[in-house]
Amino acid sequence: MTQPRTAALIVAAGQGARSGGDIPKQFRLLGGRPLLWHSWRALSAHPAIDAVSVVVADGQQAALHAALGDIPFAIGGATRRDSVRAGLASLHEQGFERALIHDAARPFVPAGVIDRLITALDRAPGAVPVLPVADTLARGDAALGETVDRHGLRRIQTPQAFHLPAIIAAHDAWPNGTEATDDAQVLSRAGGAVLLVEGDAMLEKITYPADFAAAEARLNAAMCARSAIGFDVHRLVEGEELWLGGVRIPHDKGLSGHSDADVALHAITDALLGTIAAGDIGTHFPPSDPQWRGADSAQFLDHAASLIAAKGGIIDFVDLTLICEAPKIGPHREAIRARIAALLRLPPDAISVKATTTERLGFTGRGEGIAAQAIATIRIPA
Ligand code: MG
Questions:
Q1: Domains within the chain, CATH numbers bracketed
Q2: How far is CA 262 from the centre of its chain?
Q3: Residue 181: pLDDT over 90
Q4: Which of 46, 50, 103, 210 is the most exposed place for a label (fewest CB within 10 A)?
Q5: In 3D, which of 301, 359, 299, 355 has the Cα closest to residue 332?
Q6: Could you tell me the distance, in angstroms and rounded to a whole number, from the CA of residue 261 to the centre of ligand 1?
């Protein structure tokens, strides 16, 4: 049985500045990355989620592009519900059957919560993560009013998971002029069952400046740095295209190999895999497997980056050295940096590209091949 096609929708159309600063909080930096980046990476890395789309407000397209590169997005409306509906409609048009709706203000999305939500969708059209209420609750403004019995009360988090046609129909049926605070109540009001699954304290929402500080401290305390190197060589031959760092370089020869033989992306992929001790590129993409013949090496890099993201890791820096007599790398350096940065969803200043010759010595000096070495530095939960 094939799995239903599942997408995640991150609602990031807010203009709010309650968290301090003058840029909307979904674009404020947390751990050196826009807040939105964290949940986007976690959702993108989950194997049961086929695509992640983001809803931003009109005018935020450039900020989104700077944060995540060229990714699918929808333009939201005046209210949160308008934004959600725009995003859901776009997912429906693309043929998705299930959707997880997530607020960008919750950066840390544990894979276990996603697992529980998706499993619950086999039994009901909706599911939400919840946590019990630990504090005593009371009404009152200046003076203490009646205490509220917290028995049976739950705090509701996101992502919230739905059968796409059911949540779209429920939003269509919701009365105009009233706002829903979340999507689960929209489905529930329309008569759809919403199952409760166990939430996670990591999913806490970031609202105030102190929340940013706490999240930053949590990231710093919980993460350790790791670095690993990668090395690769391919033979230069006539009649092949030359691809270096995901960029086609005009040259009278190209690199030969089973895939597109992009020696630079292979070295970086091995460095990234090394940071999580996940073997090497041949472990994941065996040269004996015909499906990788002529393959675009960008997918190898993306796979390694996804494995790191799935462990909650953050790639901080990649440094690449290309070793060849020809072609000259200098004229292509910035294009290669930009391409690698785009593939890894990193700012270009997180990528370094260097080149050297070997003074006409050895196989690189004789122009028989190109070598590449890379080092990657990441942070990962300790
Ligand atoms: Mg290789």
A1: 6-207 (3.90.550.10), 223-381 (3.30.1330.50)
A2: 24
A3: no
A4: 210
A5: 355
A6: 6
